[in-house]
Amino acid sequence: MDLRELPLCVLKSDHGNDCTKASAQSCGECIQVGEKCGWCTFENFLKQGESKSTRCDEVEALIKKGCPNGTIENPRGSVTVNQNKPVTNRKKDVAQTADQITQIQPQKLTLNLRAGEPQKFSLTFKRAEDYPIDLYYLMDLSFSMKDDLENVKNLGTDLMKEMQTITSDFRIGFGSFVEKTVMPYISTTPAKLLNPCTADQNCTSPFSYKNVLKLTKNGAEFNKLVSKQQISGNLDSPEGGFDAIMQVAVCGEQIGWRNVTRLLVFSTDAGFHFAGDGKLGGIVLPNDGKCHLKDNMYTMSHYYDYPSIAHLVQKLSDNNIQTIFAVTEEFQSVYKELKNLIPKSAVGTLSSNSSNVIKLIIDAYNSLSSEVILENSKLPEGVSISYVSHCKNGVSETGDNGRKCSNISIGDEVSFDVAITAKGCPSHGKSETIKIKPLGFNEEVVIVLNFICECECHDNGVANSDKCHFGNGTFECGACRCNEGRIGRVCECSKDDVRTEDLDANCRMDNGTDICSNNGDCICGTCECKKRDNPEERYEGKFCECDNFNCDRSNNKLCGGHGQCVCRVCVCDTNYTGSACDCSLDTQSCVASNGQICNGRGTCECGVCKCTDQKFQGPTCEICPTCPGVCTEHKACVQCRAFQTGEFKDTCQEKCSYFNLAIVDKKEDLPQPNSQPYLTHCKERDANDCWFFFTYSTGNDTVQVYVVKDPECPAGPDIIPIVAGLVAGIVLIGLALLLIWKLLMIIHDRREFAKFEKEKMNAKWDAGENPIYKSAVTTVVNPKYEGK
Q1: Residue 13's pLDDT is what?
Q2: What DSSP line would sit under 147-162, residue for residue?
Q3: Residue 27, helix vs strand vs coil
Q4: Secondary structure (3-state) at 630
Q5: 192 exposed, middle or buried (CB, 10 Å; 0-12, 13-18, 19+)?
Q6: What number of other Cβ atoms are within 10 A of residue 491's Cβ?
Q7: Binning pLDDT at 50, 70 and 90, where does residue 94 land?
Q8: β pairing state of 133-140 and 170-177
């Protein structure tokens, strides 16, 4: 086993950057890891215990580790344009051949690829006016297409006339197909081989594909030869059109294709056979994709199977052929699915007798020519490509849509941004060539890919150098590249004796039992320290006994963020000290608002005030919760010195001589707040309820007090207005109460009267007679009276 791979095994769980994970043993290996990786060529860069792979890291990390400027190998890729003919601004009346017309720019580039670094360039495409066109009409001549053949007989001259509006250089050809000439596709009885149709129909013998007319500018000749064609017949509904399309695509010489726009019109009213269907006729050999025309007839239909769709797509693309499927309504869905698999193809609906074939061809051509799709050849292993399209009206697309632009008119110019990226160097290390071309066009962009597999310093390597243990390696790029069978930092060890006890003893510190302090591997009697998950952390030292991450921490930061961890001990920055570099020697943070260190009431230790006066606290010993304010504290002294009053008036000279006093006439004459530092405005009341005003300010060891000369005392009360006001108030209140009482009585009386009136109206009197009343009239009736 190659022990140079041992560090890689240790790194399987490494979550550091790709450069350190790769464990590169040379500059060439390093730069193939990724575009960010650099190799330090400074000979004395490595510290004790560090392996050669430590030289490979991100450029910024190498600089932090101490690799001097100018000693880091970090080659960059480049793009060189070798051929850059501008796109042609062609006019219809200017004679130019197809070879003189340029529709895509540039035409050739050379790319130097560095692993992981995309190389970008732009391609411009402009659709040229009056571009030559070759059109080949491939027609199904099975019996169901009999009426269609009659309408196609005059296609040549009619189509020539219509195409004059598009191009002045137009050629047309004709071919036909039926089916493979074996059972069960056709009847192989002698009679049916002569006439596959019914007895009353005159049909030609069945055939697979026939090239009737090579591409020509003579429309009359097209009409003449097509008029001589006869319908044939077969047994099954699907036709052998794929065989015919393959031969048209690959037999360029027989068909007469030029390097111009190539159109293939495929006309049928049936489906198609494809790869695998040949087994029904006992044909199992895959289609070889080669030309097999003899006397313009396809001669191997009974030998090779139908081509697959993918095979057809490849051949049509390789030969820049755009396909137009002119099919009847019944098979539209089938051929639309086929169109989705064949780039630069179109489907048109053919009337039952092909009467609309010219309009179909014109519409399909306009549709195909208005779209440009870029296609690249097969990419070398590890190489990827991406496109971004910039089409009309500022529309940009990426991904698969980045390869194409639609709705392009003649003279329109579109562009594509192309990025090519290599993951590494190919095994052979040689240049590769790829091509990019717009589908359906004969032009292409040739791109030569050169791979950057070695650093520039590789060429200056010294073979069998004395620096590599008696010439056991090549000294290049600041390190030894060992010869076969040798390993170690300077190739000092043979693979055969790398694991001996004698060598392991050299890796034990102070004759202890731990090899490389359990922080590394003993390689050739030398400790190669393990790498950490975090590439910023590392073991070092002869026995890997040191590291840069096990020092004291403060505020969860290594060495408090103010020093470097060297062999597990903090080396502090300037103005810092302590085991974790957490003690600042700078006293700026201890300066109080009065400019004194800790307000003169404490000491500054490690940038923090330690208050010696227990009454004071806070970051600068300025907070005193139990202390009176400045104004209250100095009120008595100001009173005694300015007005000879107050509690200190008898002892003023002894207690209140610590400040300078100045008298001013008005409050406006007092110093303003921003005129002096540390100035306080005070307003205090004396025993007579008079207010006096003063300012208190501190300077350089002096205290200055300014006092307004006259206190503001409140004036005595005016008795007469007070008494008058009081009497008037009492009278007014009495009147108000009397009026309120009167109002309430009126409201009460009105309510009682209303109640009485209501009861009066509701009263009911009894109308019965007086029981002791007797009327004065007495009526007597004669008993004898009979009413006569």
Answers
A1: 37
A2: HHHHHHTTHHHHHHHH
A3: helix
A4: helix
A5: middle
A6: 24
A7: low
A8: parallel
Residue 383, CA distances (Å) to 36, 116, 501, 622 in order: 18, 10, 47, 70
Residue with tokens 């179109």: 346
Contact 685, 640 (CB under 8 A): no
Residue type, 663: I
The strand pair at 133-140 and 108-113 is best described as unpaired
State whether the Cα torsion 359-360-364-367 is positive or negative. Answer: positive
Mean pLDDT for the stretch of residues 99-121: 91
- What confidence score (pLDDT) does residue 745 get? 93
Packing angle between helix 309-318 and helix 241-250, nearest 10 degrees?
30
CA distance 614 to 601: 9
Q: Are 217 and 171 in contact (CB under 8 A)?
A: yes
627 neighbors 613 (Cβ within 8 angstroms): no
Contact at 8 Å (CB) between 182 and 283?
yes
Q: Is 696 helix (H, G, I), strand (E, B) or coil?
A: strand
Token couple for 165: 């509006």
pLDDT of residue 520: 82
- Measured distance CA(299)–CA(5) in Å, rounded: 60
Q: How many residues does the chain have?
A: 788
* pLDDT (tens digit per residue) in 442-454: 889 999 999 999 9
Q: Could you tell me the two tokens for 757?
A: 């009136």
| Beta pairing class for 479-482 and 486-487 | unpaired
In 3D space, the residue among 367, 381, 451, 379 whose CA is nearest the CA of residue 418 turns out to be 379
Cα–Cα dist 494/358, whole Å: 81
79 forms beta bridges with 111
Cα separation, 238 vs 457, in Å, equals 66
pTM exceeds 0.70 for this model: no
Yes or no: say if 24 and 60 are a contact pair by the CB < 8 Å rule.
no
Pairing of strands 703-708, 660-664: parallel
Which residue has tokens 């080659």? 75
691 forms bridges with which residues in the sheet?
Answer: 685, 712
Task: Identify the CA nearest to 298 among candidates 181, 170, 447.
Answer: 181
Q: pLDDT band for 121, please (50, 70, 90 cuts).
A: very high
d(CA 484, CA 56): 22
| Cα distance between the two ends of the chain | 171
Q: Where is average pLDDT lowest: 78-87, 307-316, 475-484, 605-614?
A: 605-614
Position 409 scores a pLDDT of 86
